[in-house]
């Protein structure tokens, strides 16, 4: 059973998500938070697997709450899905860099939301709805400059691992990476695991960000690997 925490300051939205999540046989709601501070606390006490986190909440917002959860070693297994009303929300990219596993707009189809929770709970993929890639590429294209640690992190990877990272950042699954590079699925999975270990990544969202920051993947292009 996947344990889900709902964090949103609007009671009606929380109620809607609760009905949707609890209708799924493999999901359960373990708490509701009205602000980021409460969300971080309930993530611990409720032993949540996934937090559906609104960005704009009073007091401690969803961005800061995501940072707190990502920085807490006791919450290493907790995944955060950022929920936003607007596709161009200024804080979405920052939230992923802060440790979120991905994001969805609030008008996402119910089935897509439930599947996103399951995917993120497994920790094996960034959310895949088309809006995700569009938002990441739009936000990554902004001239924010290379993060100081990005080039250093990249230097720790082998040439093959850089190839694999580019494909991960391009949104490919392990099986797709294996096919592209003529590897076995197990070898592709091993490469991805080693990359995440070297980058101290919680899940595949952080390598995606690094791929854009370092130019391995450029906005509008899936990957630079032929």
Would you kindly provide a written description of the structure presented here, covering whatever features stand out?
The protein has 226 residues and is an alpha/beta fold. Helices cover 49% and strands 12% of the residues. The chain has helices at residues 11-22, 36-45, 62-71, 92-98, 110-122, 130-140, 150-155, 159-169, 174-181, 185-198, 205-213, and strands spanning 2-7, 27-33, 50-54, 79-84, 102-105. A five-stranded parallel beta sheet has the order 2-1-3-4-5, sandwiched between helices. α3 packs parallel to α4. The longest helix has 14 residues, at 185-198. The protein is globular. Residues 127-131 and 222-226 have low confidence and may be disordered.
In short:
The protein is an alpha/beta fold and 226 residues long.
Q: Strands, helices and their partners?
A:
Blueprint: E1 2-7, H1 11-22, E2 27-33, H2 36-45, E3 50-54, H3 62-71, E4 79-84, H4 92-98, E5 102-105, H5 110-122, H6 130-140, H7 150-155, H8 159-169, H9 174-181, H10 185-198, H11 205-213
Parallel strand pairs: 1-2, 1-3, 3-4, 4-5
Record keyword descriptors for this entry.
5-stranded parallel β-sheet; disordered C terminus; globular; 226 residues; 12% strand; alpha/beta
- Number of strand segments: 5
Number of helices: 11
Major sheet summary line: 5 strands, parallel
What separation lies between the terminal Cα atoms? 41 Å
Let me know the average pLDDT. 81
- What Rg, in angstroms, do the CA atoms define? 17 Å
Secondary structure category? alpha/beta
Bulk shape: globular
Spans where pLDDT lies below 50 across 5 or more residues: 127-131, 222-226
Give the topology string: H per helix, E per strand: EHEHEHEHEHHHHHHH
Major sheet: arrangement of strands: 2-1-3-4-5
Beta-strand share of residues: 5-15%
Which range best describes the helical content: under 10%, 10-25%, 25-40%, 40-55%, 55-70% or over 70%?
Answer: 40-55%
């Amino acid at each position: 059973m996947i344990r889900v925490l709902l964090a949103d300051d609007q009671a009606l939205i929380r109620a809607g998500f609760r009905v949707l999540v609890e209708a799924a046989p493999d999901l359960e709601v373990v708490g509701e938070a009205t602000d980021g501070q409460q969300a971080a606390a309930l993530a611990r006490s409720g032993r949540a697997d996934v937090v559906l986190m609104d960005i704009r909440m009073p007091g401690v917002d969803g961005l800061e709450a995501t940072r707190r959860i990502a920085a807490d070693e006791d919450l290493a297994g907790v995944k955060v899905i950022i929920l936003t009303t607007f596709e161009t929300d200024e804080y979405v990219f920052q939230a992923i860099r802060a440790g979120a596993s991905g994001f969805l707009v609030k008008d996402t189809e119910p089935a897509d939301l439930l599947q996103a929770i399951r995917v993120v709970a497994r920790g094996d993929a960034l959310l895949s709805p088309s809006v995700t890639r569009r938002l990441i590429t739009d936000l990554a294209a902004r001239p924010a400059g290379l993060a100081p640690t990005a080039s250093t992190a990249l230097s720790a990877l082998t040439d093959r691992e850089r190839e694999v990272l580019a494909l991960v950042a391009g949104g490919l699954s392990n099986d797709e990476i294996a096919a592209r590079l003529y590897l076995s699925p197990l070898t592709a999975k091993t490469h991805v695991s080693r990359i995440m270990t070297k980058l101290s990544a919680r899940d595949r969202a952080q390598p995606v960000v690094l791929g854009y920051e370092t130019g391995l993947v450029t906005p509008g292009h899936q990957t630079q690997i032929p």
